[in-house]
Amino acid sequence: MLADPRRNETWSGVGMRAYDPAVSIDRFVWSEHATLRLAQRRLERSDVEEAIRASHDERKVNEGEADWLVQGMTPLGVRVEVIYDHPIDNDETAIRIVSAWRLDTL
After folding, report:
1. What is the domain-level CATH number for residue 96?
2. Is residue 12 classed exposed, middle or buried when 0-12, 13-18 and 19+ CB atoms within 10 A define those classes?
3. Nearest in space to 63 (alpha carbons), one of 23, 29, 13, 102
4. DSSP letter at 24?
5. pLDDT (tens digit, 9 = 90+) per residue, 64-100?
6. Which of 65, 4, 42, 30 is closest to 52 using CA atoms?
7. What does pTM read for this prediction?
8. Does 72 map to a domain?
C-alpha cells in the first residue's frame, strides 16, 4: 500500500522512497519515447521540465509505465500532463521522463 507522498513515510514500490520536500529536482533524463513525443505534441523540453518542478509536490501515483503522474502548465499557459520515474538510480535529485502530452488536445 502506498501512502500520501507529502508525508515522510517509506514507500513500498520499485524506485519509490520517502518524500522529502527539501529535495530539488536538478537532473532530467528523457526516454527516447518522451523525446520523440515533444516535437509531435508541440512541447518544449524546458517547459515540460519546469512544469514538473512546479507541480512535483502534487504528483500522483501513476498506474502505468512510470512511477508518477503530474499535471502542470507551461509559461504560455498550455496545460500538460507528464509521467515520470523518481528517483532514478537512487538519486533523489533526478527524474526520468517517460512521456508528456498536452491536455488541450485530448
Report:
1. 3.30.2310
2. exposed
3. 13
4. -
5. 999 999 999 998 899 999 999 999 999 999 999 999 9
6. 30
7. 0.77
8. yes
